[in-house]
Specification:
Blueprint: E1 17-20, H1 28-34, E2 40-43, H2 49-59, E3 63-67, H3 76-89, E4 93-98, H4 100-113, E5 117-121, E6 132-137, E7 140-145, E8 153-156, H5 166-183, H6 191-213, H7 218-237, H8 242-254, H9 258-273, H10 278-287, H11 297-307, H12 324-331, H13 344-356
Helix pairs in contact: 5-6, 5-7, 5-9, 6-7, 6-10, 8-9, 8-12, 9-11, 9-13, 12-13
Length: about 375
């Protein structure tokens, strides 16, 4: 792989404490005291309530309550309900236990209140290390970026991911890969983030297929969590393009499952950008253990989905076919920076391919 030629760049270090080890959650009370909190509110989805209860028990008198109302895509009403609970209980901080949905709720609460946030991820979403946030209302997703939402502490404990269902684990890992893959052609990429992206993708590309056959292997779970952390750092530090724009439109408008939607869309977004970002896709292919050819990278991602037995079609996720035109229109509204200009007609074709689960198609263009 050739060395990066970029010699002028800006890199900003986001401050935050990361605790990474098997069994680290057992020290959660010490981490809460380190933040100066005495009345934290524990947050989760209904499905993760049992694990959240165990965290609350370890906190003992440091936990003022548990609220299990987190939902996918962070609806505004869910945020308001959680704010009311926090105010009523006099919370002085928040702990989220779960995946991106719960982390997203915690971010919104800390943005509104200024109270510290501690995150305990149980998936590979990576949201816990990014200054990005978002809510949905009236079938539209609003996103923002503010360092104020960053957790003060993140506890990565691979033991907490052992019981994460295999399909969720694999889809979540592909979601993480999407963060780093699109970061490789970001306009504001720098050498540090490039290294994080390639290392994160490599770790996940090695671990995810093996995890399929050994879902309770703590070493593989640690590798996945490590890769997800690095991929999340990419998302935190550089701008995203077509892939994330498409997923924000599809998730906000049609409430598709977040990780699976990112997995389905990734090879098609990469194919769209292939002729305009060939060096990035060549490096992506190497990180995936592929040919090292830019033109092969979208197909290699698509093949990885098949190997992991993940959905490859939006139709399988509940996307209505009559919504494709509307999605294509919204994708060109307020577009994100992208290597190739967003063309509505071509995006409509891309969405049709993704809807039916067809292999990604690369437009004719230079891949040198």
């Amino acid at each position: 792989m050739s060395c990066i030629r970029q010699r002028s760049f800006v890199y900003s270090q986001f401050a935050g404490r990361v605790v990474f080890s098997a069994g680290a959650v057992r020290d959660v009370a010490a981490e809460v005291r380190r933040l100066g909190c005495r009345r934290v509110l524990v947050l989760s989805t209904p499905e993760q309530r049992g694990l959240a209860e165990s965290v609350r028990e370890q906190l003992a008198e440091l936990a003022v309550g548990l609220h299990d109302g987190a939902q996918m895509h962070v609806p505004v009403g869910v945020v308001r309900d959680a704010q009311a609970v926090a105010t009523q209980l006099g919370a002085d901080g928040f702990i989220t236990v779960g995946g991106g949905s719960t982390t997203g709720l915690g971010k919104m609460l800390t943005l509104e209140s200024g109270l510290p946030l501690l995150v305990i991820p149980t998936t590979y979403a990576g949201s816990e290390v990014t200054p990005l946030y978002g809510t949905t209302q009236d079938k539209a997703k609003t996103t923002g970026k503010n360092p104020a939402v960053l957790p003060k502490t993140v506890i990565y404990d691979p033991e907490l991911t052992l019981d994460l269902p295999l399909p969720v684990s694999l889809a979540s890992g592909m979601n993480a890969i999407a963060h780093a893959a699109e970061g490789l052609y970001a306009a504001d990429l720098n050498p540090v983030i490039r290294l994080m992206a390639l290392e994160g993708i490599s770790a996940l590309a090695r671990a995810l297929p093996a995890l399929r056959d050994a879902p309770r292997d703590i070493g593989l779970r640690a590798d996945c969590l490590y890769g997800a952390w690095l991929c999340g750092m990419v998302l935190a530090n550089v701008g995203m393009g077509l892939h994330h724009k498409a997923c924000h439109v599809l998730g906000g408008s049609f409430a598709l499952p977040h990780a699976e939607m990112h997995a389905v869309m990734l090879p098609h977004a990469l194919a769209y950008n292939a002729s305009a970002a060939a060096p990035a896709l060549a490096s992506l292919s190497v990180a995936l253990g592929g040919s090292g050819k830019a033109g092969d990278a979208p197909g290699e991602v698509f093949a990885l989905l098949d190997l992991l037995r993940l959905p490859t079609a939006l139709s399988a996720l509940g996307m209505p076919e009559d919504g494709l035109d509307r999605a294509a229109r919204r994708m060109v509204e307020r577009p994100y920076p992208n290597p190739r200009p967003l063309e509505q007609a071509r995006l409509r074709t891309l969405l049709d391919d993704a809807f039916h689960g067809r292999p990604p198609r690369i437009d004719v263009g230079s891949l040198s």
